[in-house]
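Worked example (supplementary).
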Amino acid sequence: MLEKLTFKSDIEIAQSAKMLRIEEIVGQLGIEEDDWEPYGRYKGKLSLDLFQKLQNVEDGKVVLVTAISPTPAGEGKSTVTVGLGQALNRVGKKTIIALREPSLGPSMGIKGGAAGGGYSQVMPMEDINLHFTGDLHAITTANNALAALIDNHIHQGNELNIDPRRIVWKRALDMNDRALRKIVIGLGGPVQGVPREDGFDITVASEVMAIFCLANDLEDLKIRLSKMVVAFDYDNQPITAGHLNAQGALTLLLKDAIRPNIVQTLENTPALVHGGPFANIAHGCNSVIATKLASKLGEMVVTEAGFGADLGAEKFLDIKARYAGIKPSAVVIVATVRALKMHGGLAKEYLKNPDLEALQKGMPNLEKHLETLKEFGVPVVVAINKFVTDTDEEVAFIKEWCDSRGIAAEEADVWAKGGQGGEALAKRVLETIETEENKYKPLYELNVSLQEKIETICKKVYGAGEVQFSPKAVKQMKQFTDFGWDQLPICMAKTQYSFSDDPKKLGRPKNFTITIRELKPSIGAGFIVALTGDVMTMPGLPKVPAANNMDVSEDGKAVGLF
Amino acid sequence: MLEKLTFKSDIEIAQSAKMLRIEEIVGQLGIEEDDWEPYGRYKGKLSLDLFQKLQNVEDGKVVLVTAISPTPAGEGKSTVTVGLGQALNRVGKKTIIALREPSLGPSMGIKGGAAGGGYSQVMPMEDINLHFTGDLHAITTANNALAALIDNHIHQGNELNIDPRRIVWKRALDMNDRALRKIVIGLGGPVQGVPREDGFDITVASEVMAIFCLANDLEDLKIRLSKMVVAFDYDNQPITAGHLNAQGALTLLLKDAIRPNIVQTLENTPALVHGGPFANIAHGCNSVIATKLASKLGEMVVTEAGFGADLGAEKFLDIKARYAGIKPSAVVIVATVRALKMHGGLAKEYLKNPDLEALQKGMPNLEKHLETLKEFGVPVVVAINKFVTDTDEEVAFIKEWCDSRGIAAEEADVWAKGGQGGEALAKRVLETIETEENKYKPLYELNVSLQEKIETICKKVYGAGEVQFSPKAVKQMKQFTDFGWDQLPICMAKTQYSFSDDPKKLGRPKNFTITIRELKPSIGAGFIVALTGDVMTMPGLPKVPAANNMDVSEDGKAVGLF
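After joint prediction of all chains, the assembly is encoded as:
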């Protein structure tokens, strides 16, 4: 019967599932009525007061799900995250899933949701992929309130001496809208403001989103918001949101959004879906508040980070975990036969054919990620996420490859079978946590120079032979050090497809040179972004946008969203 | 004791009030659990399925609250609307209030909420004035999804032959941001889109908002969205959202927002707060869906329209009521001693002094509005909204002036005393509905020419001696007639401060000439906007924005919002 069910689409599975009322999910966690609010029948927001009430509860164990370098073949990281969470509950561990919330804009472009897949999904997927509980709208509003305050300040006399050519704060929309990338604003004469160059980012690229996901509480949120650098003055000194006295209003605009959203999976496992920053110019993890609250509410927390382990896991372990004081108990790295074969040089159209040679050639990608995770000292489990085209030989090959190196590895069939398909993986994760020593520490100390931190990541995590800095980057490192920003961690912006800065170099490239083109201060978030190439912070729509096929059915259901 | 209480601020009164859980409010209306959803503990959204279930219930009576021409002295129209609703419940009529929902953007500029005042407020006012249930964010998103689809269409080959110089669809933000009024987008070379002039309106000025408030149901919403004119092609023919096949996606983005919000007043009277279009370039009334649903749920509905009776009531009676098939039972026109004295020529700083002469001189403003309402054939009651500085003589003067002309008039003290202070007014409204014949009909037939419709409004409602049309307006009237748009009603965009197009002419100007500068098609909303001057559709922030004083208190409450 399960075989037959696997041919249902994600939306069919989701719409035929039996959701519990959100009060049941919340009630099962022992949360009292005063400590949460419903948003519809199947979504809720948890009060931050819970931290105070649960302060003496022991923290649950945090398991991070990451992946090999992503390929167009797909790895299914969110699906494994959801499936593993469901499986841990099945094997007797009270587990909460902590995921990022998706951006609405991209769903207008390309069909597809971002809430897991098959029998490992979070629900209600239609809501989660559209407006959800309004968090992204609140972040958009806060971002744009600050932008309006900047331009108004200049228009009203510019007491802070802001150089309109050096405003780094951009406006934001949760929309794929390429025409807004580069714009000129303030046209139309003296009453319409001061003309200057500007641009819009998609909301998830806003520093407000990064801060939202790194703040420990409302007070920390406000402090971080006040530190955001929005411009430089005519003396080239940084101007912050605090100089504009904007942090109170921005915090007010975020006060409801900052409370974690609670929903459920297809198997009624609680999931906190909250915050979702870019994984290149930001750190790509769900909110610290949600992760920490989940660890107070469950014995186990399963969470994920964006892109592959070289970006997502590195940032989770060097930025998020460090700031939040989270000690991850294990890292699960998702690999698939298909993706490894692509790393081995097989073209996408041949991936459905068994090919042990290509698979073998692709293993060094996994090998390098495993070496990196070892540097962080965390116990690791490889999850082989099953696809229908995988052969037994191919799966066995990966398992044996891992076994022979003393690395825990299990197949996960969570897309087709839900939590049941992840039980072996769940048990292996628990066993690994119990038996392996956890020596987690960040890869670098904060008190070394920006250059040394960047070189450490490039060499140890990516395997670069050399790191080159552009003249601009060299100048910025000196400037940022003068501003006292050199004590911050690094957030690398690099292609997710390769360890190198060339997206075409799959597998495990070696002895390559990586170029740091430019730095970007995210002082409120608390990191310096190091850009290795152009990063697209405002996507466009394709020739035939998914929006063209969207509709609402007569009974009020979403059509064309998935 | 009441005297003492009146010195509390709105926010103090609101925060000390005892709200009922929203399920109690909903339950008292006999709404079953399947037919609404909670948004937090004190807000809800009602299902559109209720229309089907209540189709055999007799419609409640709709009372429209309007006002004399607004002055800086303040009229308190929302306060009277809320107070009258509370009072009608007190005198035994099951009454629902139907209000517009406020825009967030302006609250960043000038301190002050938009949810009534004193002891006649809707709650929770902090939420209502910020993100509320996300309706405005959904409208912003729908507006901007369409904008992105337009520019993407041009970028991807422009099959529809859209002239980029003739795109009339603007982007929108719920923010006071003057720098976005006139912009140039699509800069940066061929991969960033096609450069063109553009601009942002504040969200409430979007035609999506006007449609949101005029649609009868989800299907009507979709049809209206498809009719929106977004541009003209190189042959100067209109291009609609339907040509871009955007109506399905836009409807999907609005499917939750379109369900009316339910909240309560300080006296626990149910209030549907839903939709809030501009009162100049749009019709300035809350949603038809909320008004009609309220009339199915209550014996009485009290609702309001923007600005004075020359704009708000005219549009309610000629546009909204006509499209929705609503027959208003009575119109309450709010007047204050202070505002009438301003219309009589008294400067703002002297309004607190008793001045019967100025009052007498100001009466013609009320007189003209009363004459207009008579043209529509609806029973009218004058509400004298009490201010603490009013003298008994001044109030008595207005009452006697009305009595001598056979016009019902009552004092309302709803700000200081809540529903109790409106009981006399409530009884007078009920008595007027019972005793006066209701001969409501719109002012003009739809099948006359655009010019004749505009002239009818200007002469009969404003009292203009002559109507001049600019050459552009003349050309547009011909063009719009060729497109078959001449059968639509007119939505006048005129200053709210004067019957004329000169905001300085208070009182009752006569024999003036009004100039129609330009027309604007709002084909989805279903009206032609006639502009008599420049209308600001994107406000700016003041030198010291209210945002500078906003904050969140340690216990999570809004600071500086009111």
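Two points are worth noting when inspecting this output. Chain B touches chain A through 76 residues (CB under 8 Å). Chain B is about 35% helix and 20% strand.
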